[in-house]
Design goal:
By secondary structure, this protein is mostly beta strands. It has one helix and four strands. A hairpin with a 7-residue loop joins strand 1 and strand 2.
């Protein structure tokens, strides 16, 4: 993933969760991620909140609107 591929707060997308993961990337904080297959076929990895991560399963739909955090509709 390059800097140009990173998602910003003003981006909007939707897709289906293909995998869930988590890790302590900096050694002290737990980060939660979802791999998402976008509607146009591109894969994307996004950082999500723990609360959302715990509510998702592979195959669930996830939506990100401009100016908000990703959510499960």
């Amino acid at each position: 993933m390059t800097k140009a591929d990173e998602q910003g707060r003003d981006d909007a997308w939707e897709g289906v969760v293909t995998a869930l993961s988590r890790g302590m990337l900096d050694g002290s904080n737990m980060y939660h991620f979802a791999d998402v297959g976008l509607a146009d076929g591109r894969p994307m990895r996004v950082r999500i909140s723990r609360r959302l991560w715990k509510s998702l399963a592979v195959g669930d739909r996830i939506v990100k609107r401009s100016g908000s955090e990703p959510f499960r509709p």
